[in-house]
Amino acid sequence: MAKYDIAVLKQFRYERVLNEDPITHALTLLGTLPLEGSSEHAPAIVRIEKTALTGDNADQLLGQELKDARLIEGTDIYTWLFGWLSPSADRPDVKINIVHPATEVHIRKYSRQEVVIVHETPALFERIVKPYITAFPPSRTQWVENILNGVSEAEKVLFRDPTPESGYLILPDMKWDLVTISSLYLVAIAFNRNVRSLRDLNKSHLGMLKSIRREAVRVVKERWGLDYGSLRMFIHYQPSYYHFHVHIVNVSYQGLPGMSAGQAHLLDDIISLIECDPDDGPSILQRMTLTYALGEQHGLYEAMKAAQSELGFY
User: Which of 50, 139, 152, 262 is the most exposed place for a label (fewest CB within 10 A)?
Assistant: First the structure.
Protein backbone atom coordinates (compact mmCIF):
# COMPACT_ATOMS: atom_id res chain seq x y z
CA MET A 1 0.00 0.00 0.00
CA ALA A 2 1.34 3.39 -0.98
CA LYS A 3 2.25 5.81 1.79
CA TYR A 4 0.46 9.15 1.69
CA ASP A 5 1.61 12.05 3.82
CA ILE A 6 1.58 15.83 3.62
CA ALA A 7 4.57 15.83 1.25
CA VAL A 8 2.78 13.55 -1.22
CA LEU A 9 -0.54 15.40 -0.95
CA LYS A 10 1.17 18.69 -1.78
CA GLN A 11 2.13 17.16 -5.13
CA PHE A 12 -1.54 16.76 -6.09
CA ARG A 13 -2.19 18.30 -9.50
CA TYR A 14 -5.77 19.50 -9.55
CA GLU A 15 -7.88 18.95 -12.69
CA ARG A 16 -11.54 19.41 -11.79
CA VAL A 17 -14.29 19.00 -9.21
CA LEU A 18 -16.12 15.69 -9.55
CA ASN A 19 -18.78 16.33 -6.93
CA GLU A 20 -19.89 18.72 -4.19
CA ASP A 21 -22.00 17.45 -1.29
CA PRO A 22 -23.34 20.18 1.01
CA ILE A 23 -25.03 17.60 3.26
CA THR A 24 -21.84 15.76 4.19
CA HIS A 25 -19.69 18.91 3.72
CA ALA A 26 -17.52 17.03 1.24
CA LEU A 27 -15.71 17.93 -1.97
CA THR A 28 -14.46 15.28 -4.41
CA LEU A 29 -11.58 16.32 -6.65
CA LEU A 30 -9.93 14.72 -9.68
CA GLY A 31 -6.25 15.22 -10.32
CA THR A 32 -3.01 13.27 -10.29
CA LEU A 33 -0.54 12.08 -7.66
CA PRO A 34 2.91 10.55 -8.10
CA LEU A 35 3.15 6.77 -8.12
CA GLU A 36 5.09 5.31 -5.21
CA GLY A 37 8.80 5.37 -5.85
CA SER A 38 8.39 7.30 -9.09
CA SER A 39 8.03 10.84 -10.37
CA GLU A 40 5.34 9.65 -12.79
CA HIS A 41 1.84 10.84 -11.96
CA ALA A 42 -1.36 8.78 -12.23
CA PRO A 43 -5.04 9.77 -11.92
CA ALA A 44 -6.16 10.31 -8.33
CA ILE A 45 -9.55 10.93 -6.73
CA VAL A 46 -9.38 12.86 -3.46
CA ARG A 47 -12.47 13.27 -1.29
CA ILE A 48 -12.14 15.94 1.42
CA GLU A 49 -14.83 15.95 4.10
CA LYS A 50 -15.28 18.19 7.12
CA THR A 51 -14.98 16.19 10.31
CA ALA A 52 -17.72 16.24 12.92
CA LEU A 53 -17.52 18.20 16.14
CA THR A 54 -17.59 16.14 19.33
CA GLY A 55 -18.63 16.97 22.86
CA ASP A 56 -15.21 16.11 24.31
CA ASN A 57 -14.09 19.74 24.46
CA ALA A 58 -17.48 21.46 24.31
CA ASP A 59 -16.64 23.67 27.31
CA GLN A 60 -13.76 25.23 25.36
CA LEU A 61 -15.27 25.67 21.89
CA LEU A 62 -16.66 29.14 22.54
CA GLY A 63 -13.80 30.03 24.83
CA GLN A 64 -10.13 29.45 24.20
CA GLU A 65 -10.66 27.45 20.97
CA LEU A 66 -12.74 30.09 19.19
CA LYS A 67 -10.26 32.13 17.18
CA ASP A 68 -12.65 34.53 15.43
CA ALA A 69 -16.36 35.13 14.75
CA ARG A 70 -18.15 37.23 12.15
CA LEU A 71 -21.81 38.23 12.06
CA ILE A 72 -23.93 36.86 9.19
CA GLU A 73 -27.39 38.03 10.22
CA GLY A 74 -29.60 38.51 13.24
CA THR A 75 -33.28 39.04 13.99
CA ASP A 76 -35.03 39.20 17.34
CA ILE A 77 -33.56 36.41 19.49
CA TYR A 78 -31.82 34.64 16.57
CA THR A 79 -28.27 35.31 15.38
CA TRP A 80 -26.07 33.61 12.76
CA LEU A 81 -22.28 33.87 12.67
CA PHE A 82 -19.31 32.39 10.91
CA GLY A 83 -16.67 31.09 13.31
CA TRP A 84 -13.05 29.99 13.12
CA LEU A 85 -11.55 27.52 15.59
CA SER A 86 -7.89 27.43 16.52
CA PRO A 87 -5.88 24.53 15.01
CA SER A 88 -5.82 21.45 17.22
CA ALA A 89 -3.84 18.22 16.97
CA ASP A 90 -6.69 16.38 18.73
CA ARG A 91 -9.42 17.69 16.42
CA PRO A 92 -8.56 17.41 12.70
CA ASP A 93 -10.54 19.72 10.43
CA VAL A 94 -10.97 17.37 7.48
CA LYS A 95 -10.84 13.67 6.61
CA ILE A 96 -9.20 12.82 3.27
CA ASN A 97 -9.97 9.69 1.24
CA ILE A 98 -7.77 8.83 -1.75
CA VAL A 99 -8.31 6.49 -4.72
CA HIS A 100 -4.97 6.16 -6.55
CA PRO A 101 -4.30 5.15 -9.21
CA ALA A 102 -7.91 5.72 -10.20
CA THR A 103 -9.54 4.13 -13.26
CA GLU A 104 -12.27 5.57 -15.49
CA VAL A 105 -14.75 3.40 -13.59
CA HIS A 106 -13.71 5.06 -10.32
CA ILE A 107 -13.97 8.52 -11.88
CA ARG A 108 -17.50 7.82 -13.14
CA LYS A 109 -18.52 6.42 -9.75
CA TYR A 110 -17.39 9.52 -7.83
CA SER A 111 -18.73 12.05 -10.36
CA ARG A 112 -21.95 13.93 -9.81
CA GLN A 113 -24.65 12.29 -11.90
CA GLU A 114 -28.35 12.19 -12.64
CA VAL A 115 -30.19 9.07 -11.49
CA VAL A 116 -33.15 7.06 -12.74
CA ILE A 117 -35.34 4.45 -11.03
CA VAL A 118 -35.15 0.98 -12.58
CA HIS A 119 -37.00 -2.27 -11.89
CA GLU A 120 -34.83 -5.38 -12.00
CA THR A 121 -36.85 -8.55 -12.57
CA PRO A 122 -35.19 -11.97 -12.13
CA ALA A 123 -35.10 -12.22 -15.94
CA LEU A 124 -33.29 -8.88 -16.26
CA PHE A 125 -30.87 -9.94 -13.56
CA GLU A 126 -29.97 -13.09 -15.52
CA ARG A 127 -29.76 -11.29 -18.86
CA ILE A 128 -28.09 -7.98 -17.94
CA VAL A 129 -26.89 -7.74 -14.34
CA LYS A 130 -25.37 -11.17 -13.75
CA PRO A 131 -23.11 -11.01 -16.86
CA TYR A 132 -22.08 -7.48 -15.80
CA ILE A 133 -21.05 -8.74 -12.35
CA THR A 134 -19.32 -11.84 -13.74
CA ALA A 135 -17.25 -9.73 -16.15
CA PHE A 136 -15.50 -7.83 -13.36
CA PRO A 137 -11.83 -8.84 -13.15
CA PRO A 138 -10.49 -10.07 -9.78
CA SER A 139 -8.28 -6.98 -9.62
CA ARG A 140 -11.34 -4.82 -8.90
CA THR A 141 -11.74 -6.46 -5.47
CA GLN A 142 -8.07 -7.15 -4.76
CA TRP A 143 -8.21 -4.64 -1.91
CA VAL A 144 -10.96 -6.78 -0.32
CA GLU A 145 -8.79 -9.88 -0.69
CA ASN A 146 -5.92 -8.02 0.97
CA ILE A 147 -8.15 -7.32 3.98
CA LEU A 148 -9.47 -10.90 4.17
CA ASN A 149 -5.95 -12.35 3.89
CA GLY A 150 -4.49 -10.00 6.50
CA VAL A 151 -2.24 -8.20 4.03
CA SER A 152 -3.78 -4.84 4.90
CA GLU A 153 -5.75 -3.35 7.82
CA ALA A 154 -5.12 -6.44 9.98
CA GLU A 155 -4.66 -4.27 13.07
CA LYS A 156 -8.12 -2.75 12.59
CA VAL A 157 -10.09 -6.03 12.53
CA LEU A 158 -12.55 -6.15 15.43
CA PHE A 159 -13.86 -9.68 14.87
CA ARG A 160 -12.83 -12.57 12.61
CA ASP A 161 -14.50 -15.89 11.83
CA PRO A 162 -12.30 -17.48 9.13
CA THR A 163 -14.77 -20.25 8.17
CA PRO A 164 -14.68 -20.29 4.32
CA GLU A 165 -18.43 -20.72 3.73
CA SER A 166 -19.98 -18.76 6.59
CA GLY A 167 -17.14 -16.71 8.07
CA TYR A 168 -16.56 -12.97 7.91
CA LEU A 169 -14.66 -10.19 9.59
CA ILE A 170 -15.76 -6.85 11.04
CA LEU A 171 -13.63 -3.71 10.88
CA PRO A 172 -14.11 0.08 10.69
CA ASP A 173 -15.20 1.38 7.30
CA MET A 174 -12.82 3.83 5.66
CA LYS A 175 -15.56 6.48 5.75
CA TRP A 176 -15.41 6.63 9.56
CA ASP A 177 -12.93 8.95 11.29
CA LEU A 178 -12.43 6.32 14.07
CA VAL A 179 -13.21 8.94 16.71
CA THR A 180 -16.76 10.29 16.47
CA ILE A 181 -19.11 7.68 17.99
CA SER A 182 -22.24 9.38 16.62
CA SER A 183 -20.96 8.64 13.09
CA LEU A 184 -19.65 5.14 13.89
CA TYR A 185 -19.36 3.13 10.67
CA LEU A 186 -18.20 -0.49 10.50
CA VAL A 187 -18.39 -3.10 7.74
CA ALA A 188 -18.67 -6.90 7.84
CA ILE A 189 -17.04 -8.63 4.85
CA ALA A 190 -17.82 -12.29 4.05
CA PHE A 191 -15.12 -14.85 3.29
CA ASN A 192 -17.44 -16.66 0.87
CA ARG A 193 -16.40 -15.44 -2.59
CA ASN A 194 -19.50 -16.98 -4.20
CA VAL A 195 -21.83 -14.46 -2.56
CA ARG A 196 -21.45 -11.40 -4.76
CA SER A 197 -24.65 -9.53 -3.93
CA LEU A 198 -28.08 -9.64 -2.31
CA ARG A 199 -29.33 -11.84 -5.15
CA ASP A 200 -27.06 -14.72 -4.08
CA LEU A 201 -28.44 -15.05 -0.54
CA ASN A 202 -30.58 -18.03 0.45
CA LYS A 203 -31.41 -20.10 3.55
CA SER A 204 -27.93 -21.57 3.70
CA HIS A 205 -26.62 -18.10 4.56
CA LEU A 206 -28.94 -17.46 7.52
CA GLY A 207 -26.30 -18.58 10.00
CA MET A 208 -23.78 -16.07 8.65
CA LEU A 209 -26.29 -13.21 8.55
CA LYS A 210 -27.50 -13.83 12.10
CA SER A 211 -23.91 -14.16 13.33
CA ILE A 212 -23.00 -10.79 11.76
CA ARG A 213 -25.96 -9.19 13.51
CA ARG A 214 -25.07 -10.78 16.87
CA GLU A 215 -21.33 -10.12 16.80
CA ALA A 216 -21.71 -6.53 15.56
CA VAL A 217 -23.94 -5.76 18.54
CA ARG A 218 -21.48 -7.43 20.93
CA VAL A 219 -18.40 -5.65 19.53
CA VAL A 220 -20.03 -2.22 19.59
CA LYS A 221 -21.30 -2.77 23.13
CA GLU A 222 -17.89 -3.88 24.43
CA ARG A 223 -15.83 -1.27 22.56
CA TRP A 224 -18.02 1.81 22.63
CA GLY A 225 -20.76 1.09 25.17
CA LEU A 226 -23.62 1.38 22.68
CA ASP A 227 -26.62 -0.72 23.70
CA TYR A 228 -28.70 -3.08 21.57
CA GLY A 229 -30.85 -1.10 19.15
CA SER A 230 -28.14 1.50 18.58
CA LEU A 231 -27.10 0.07 15.21
CA ARG A 232 -28.52 0.27 11.71
CA MET A 233 -27.26 -2.68 9.61
CA PHE A 234 -27.97 -2.74 5.90
CA ILE A 235 -26.94 -4.23 2.57
CA HIS A 236 -26.65 -2.20 -0.64
CA TYR A 237 -28.14 -3.14 -3.97
CA GLN A 238 -26.55 -2.35 -6.32
CA PRO A 239 -23.44 -2.52 -4.11
CA SER A 240 -20.34 -0.44 -4.74
CA TYR A 241 -18.30 -3.66 -5.08
CA TYR A 242 -19.42 -7.21 -5.76
CA HIS A 243 -18.18 -9.09 -2.72
CA PHE A 244 -20.84 -9.56 -0.04
CA HIS A 245 -20.63 -7.10 2.83
CA VAL A 246 -22.90 -5.52 5.44
CA HIS A 247 -22.79 -1.87 6.52
CA ILE A 248 -23.02 -1.26 10.29
CA VAL A 249 -23.61 2.34 11.42
CA ASN A 250 -24.77 4.25 14.46
CA VAL A 251 -28.55 4.51 14.17
CA SER A 252 -28.26 8.23 15.04
CA TYR A 253 -26.10 8.86 11.96
CA GLN A 254 -28.51 10.88 9.79
CA GLY A 255 -28.05 12.10 6.22
CA LEU A 256 -25.57 9.37 5.37
CA PRO A 257 -25.19 8.79 1.63
CA GLY A 258 -26.21 5.25 0.80
CA MET A 259 -29.17 4.95 3.16
CA SER A 260 -31.82 5.92 0.60
CA ALA A 261 -34.88 3.75 -0.04
CA GLY A 262 -34.24 1.18 -2.75
CA GLN A 263 -30.50 1.13 -2.14
CA ALA A 264 -30.21 0.13 1.53
CA HIS A 265 -31.95 -3.07 2.64
CA LEU A 266 -32.04 -3.64 6.40
CA LEU A 267 -30.24 -6.79 7.50
CA ASP A 268 -33.13 -7.67 9.83
CA ASP A 269 -35.60 -7.50 6.93
CA ILE A 270 -33.37 -9.64 4.70
CA ILE A 271 -33.13 -12.28 7.43
CA SER A 272 -36.92 -12.26 7.84
CA LEU A 273 -37.50 -12.57 4.09
CA ILE A 274 -35.15 -15.54 3.79
CA GLU A 275 -36.77 -17.23 6.80
CA CYS A 276 -40.04 -17.19 4.80
CA ASP A 277 -38.42 -19.20 2.00
CA PRO A 278 -39.15 -22.87 1.41
CA ASP A 279 -36.35 -25.29 2.21
CA ASP A 280 -35.54 -25.83 -1.46
CA GLY A 281 -35.78 -23.93 -4.72
CA PRO A 282 -34.80 -20.33 -5.52
CA SER A 283 -34.85 -17.89 -2.61
CA ILE A 284 -37.26 -14.97 -2.46
CA LEU A 285 -34.33 -12.64 -3.22
CA GLN A 286 -33.80 -14.54 -6.48
CA ARG A 287 -37.53 -14.50 -7.35
CA MET A 288 -38.48 -10.90 -6.56
CA THR A 289 -38.23 -7.70 -8.59
CA LEU A 290 -35.82 -5.21 -7.01
CA THR A 291 -36.36 -1.49 -7.55
CA TYR A 292 -33.48 0.95 -7.15
CA ALA A 293 -31.85 4.11 -8.52
CA LEU A 294 -28.98 3.98 -11.00
CA GLY A 295 -26.66 6.86 -11.76
CA GLU A 296 -26.00 7.73 -15.39
CA GLN A 297 -22.31 6.88 -14.92
CA HIS A 298 -23.05 3.35 -13.67
CA GLY A 299 -22.10 0.52 -16.02
CA LEU A 300 -25.65 -0.88 -15.88
CA TYR A 301 -27.39 2.43 -16.60
CA GLU A 302 -27.92 2.27 -20.37
CA ALA A 303 -28.91 -1.39 -20.57
CA MET A 304 -31.25 -1.30 -17.56
CA LYS A 305 -32.89 1.96 -18.61
CA ALA A 306 -33.53 0.61 -22.10
CA ALA A 307 -34.98 -2.59 -20.67
CA GLN A 308 -37.62 -0.74 -18.65
CA SER A 309 -39.77 -0.22 -21.74
CA GLU A 310 -40.18 -4.00 -21.95
CA LEU A 311 -41.82 -3.92 -18.53
CA GLY A 312 -44.16 -1.06 -19.42
CA PHE A 313 -42.65 1.35 -16.90
CA TYR A 314 -41.32 3.85 -19.48
Answer: 139
